[in-house]
Amino acid sequence: TDTHAYYVPFNNGALSGYAARVSLSDFTSSGVEYLNLADTNSNLKGFYGGFATDTHAYYVPFNNGALSGYAARVSLSDFTSSGVEYLNLADTNSNLKGFYGGFATDTHAYY
Predict the structure, then answer these.
(1) Start-to-end C-alpha separation, the chain
(2) What pLDDT, in 10s, does the model give residues 27-44?
(3) In the chain, what's the furthest Cα-to-Cα distance?
C-alpha cells in the first residue's frame, strides 16, 4: 500500500500465522506491527502469497499442516486480531485448497 509493506506468514521454523507490516515512513523496528492470525483460528497459518486492496491485506491459503483452504484477510485500518476475517474455501468444494499466489480486482479476490 502507500503506507505499509505487508509480510506473509509461512514458516519460521514451524508453520506460522505471524503476519507483519512495516511503516514505509518508519522502516525501523519501531515501525513494525504484527499479529498472529492463528490466535483467531488455529488453521490460519502456512500461507503462500498475499495481496492488498485499499481496505484489506489478503493471505493465500497453502499448507497449515495439510493443504489448506483457510483464506484470511485483515483490515488495513484495524491490523489487530479484531480486524481478522477468514473463510475455509474447502467448505465450498474440497478441491479448493493448496493455493500458490493470488490477486484482486475491484470486486473479487482470486486464489
Answers:
(1) 20
(2) 999 999 999 999 999 999
(3) 43
Cα angle for residues 97, 67, 108 (degrees, 5° grid):
25
Beta bridge pairs of residue 59: 50, 72
Distance CA 88, CA 105 (A): 20
63-108 pLDDT, tens digit per residue, is: 999 999 999 999 999 999 999 999 999 999 999 999 999 999 999 9
Residue 82 main-chain phi, psi, to 5 deg? -75, -15
CA–CA dist 61, 51 (Å, integer): 12
Rounded to two decimals, what is the model's pTM?
Answer: 0.93
pLDDT at 76: 97
Give a three-class secondary structure readout of the chain. Answer: CCCEEEECCCECCCECCEEEEEECCCCCHHHEEEEEHHHCCCCCCCEEEEEECCCEEEEEECECCCECCEEEEEECCCCCHHHEEEEEHHHCCCCCCCCCCCEECCCCEEC
